[in-house]
Amino acid sequence: MNWKMSRVVRTVTDVMVVPIIVFGIYLIIHGHLTPGGGFQGGAVVASSTALLIIAYGSFRDYKKDFSSVESIGLTLFIFLAILGILLGATLFYNFGAGTGGLFGGRVAEGINPGYINTGGTVPLMNIMVGLEVTAALSLILWMMAKSSDSMEVEA
Amino acid sequence: MRKIFALIALLVIFAFMILAVVEMRGEDGGFGEPVNTDMDDYFLEDSQPHNQVNNVVTAILFDYRGLDTLGEATVLFSAVSGVLTVLRKYQIKKLEVKK
Amino acid sequence: MIYFILQLLVLFGLVITAAAVIWFKDLISAAIALGASSLILSLQFYLLRAPDVAIAEAAVGAALTTAIFIFAIRASQREEGYK
Q: What is the interface pTM, i.e. ipTM, of the complex?
């Protein structure tokens, strides 16, 4: 991993990385209001990682960071699912809908744009799945880039 | 001869699929209207008063069919595990240097 | 009518890019043609009113798959066939 692309590619990458990450986080957080969600937003954020790796090519060892974030996201997702059983209902029960806490607002009936403080556990699960998908796809890209350079070609 | 048998089998399967699509149309005769809409109507009516979610697709993905999303996340996790297992060559080199 | 013409153009572009993937002998050109085909497929998903699938297809198919194919081609050879 010690190539470097031209100055044009690096400048366009510097300009475009922050809007791509902000758009991905918007897709994750507004998953219960607009089209999108955890998987789509995570894939968009991971594509910014692909852009950075292809343009710059030299990175320090991010493997443990990505792996920890992925494991934390999946564990919190399963914990939120099991919390439905512990609160006296079924698996994946939406225990936070309309209770007035975090993301506990009430929506109006019919077609409306909606508020962000609604949805119960659905936005929380969106954030967890977004963390998991971002870290997993970034880790796959990072490992492929790392090992594509040190691999010997068999003649 | 084998190609003729394969062609006949493909034509029979194609005819049955066309027949299934023709049988699937609504009572008004239009192709656009689906017939069995009980689950669709339940999700469309129930996702706002019960789950307080405006986006019905997200309500299905993360609440009604949450176990599917858990399986998808598990598939991604096992894919990452497979990639880390296959491409661990440079770590083996480091271990051999330490010996 | 404009919807029909737009969908016809998108389907023709899909067929042309999918033929270009098979026709190229240079593997990096084939990978980029596959990314273009995936982008046109996401436009078709958007025209069929499935914006969720369109976002997922554009992010995964056009960005991540192309990057992974390019890394794999870097680790092997660039031309198609044995040498």
A: 0.86
